[in-house]
Amino acid sequence: MINNKFNLVLKKFMSKKSQFLMAILSIATTMTVTYFISRAGTLNPTMAPGDTMHTLDDIYCRITGCTPTAYGLDSPGAVGATMRSLEDIYDAVDTLASGIDYSLQKNQIWDDWKGSAVATSASLSLAYTATVDQNLEEGTWASTTDTNLTSTTVASGVVKRDERTGLYWSDCYSAAVDGTCDTRTNSFTLNGVVDDADDGLDAEDGQAVDFCEALALDADGDGTDETDWYLPSQKELMQAYINGAANNIPSPASNFWSSTENYGNASSAWYVYLAGGYTYSTTKTVANYARCVRR
Asked: What residue segments make up the domains of the chain, in order of their start?
C-alpha cells in the first residue's frame, strides 16, 4: 500500500518536472529562433536589393563602365538582354586584366578608306565594297556637341571620345567658328615639370600648345566647360588613328601637331596625319594643324 502511494507521488513529480523542462526548452527555442531572425533581417523585404547587395549586372557594369539595370524581386529567371551570366563577367575580367582590349587589332586587313566603325558581321566582299568594318578592329567612338561656343577657337563644338583609351578629342583649331581648320606653329619648350593637365615633360608656349591650354569646351555633355585640354603626344595621336580616328573625328585629313619633341633635335617636333596614320618630324616653326585632347 505504501509502495503504491510512493509510486503515485513519484509519477506526479516526474510529470511536473517534464512539463517544467519542456517549458524551458520551448522558451529557449523561441529565443534562439528570434535571435537569428533578428540577425538575418526581415524575411519579407519590401524593396529590391539596395546598395549593400549587388547583382551580376552590377558587377559586370562595375568592370565595363555600363549602367546596371534596376532589378526587383520578380526579375525574370532566364538570362536575357538586360541580365548577365558568370560567363559575361569572366570575359569582362579577362579584358580588364590587360587594361585595354587590343585583340581585334590583329584583324587590320583593310585601310581606312575600305572600312569604317560600323559594327557588322558582313562578309569580306561586303567590307570591301560597302565600306564597313567587317573585322571590328576599330574602336567605338562616342560623340557630344558643345553648342554654346563663344570665344572658343575650334571649328565646331563636336567632341569625340575614344572608348578604348577614354580620351576626349576636340575639333581642329579655327580662327573663327566657321567649320574651317586653321594652322598653328608649335614652338614649345619642355620644362620638365609635371604641373599641367598632361603628364610627362610638359610642353610650354607655342601657338598649338597655348591653343589647347586655353581651350574651354564641354567634353561630356554636362553643360560645364572643361579646361584641362592639352596638345596630344605623338603616340596618343597614333593610337587615335589605329582606333579609327580617320572615320570618326571631324576633319582628319591634315597633319596635326603633337607635344612630342624630336629626341635628337629640340627645334623639331612630331606631327601625325590622322587620315593615313603616318608621322613625321619637322621644324616647330612650320604651320601645321592642331586639335586637343583631355583624359
From this structure: 103-137, 141-294
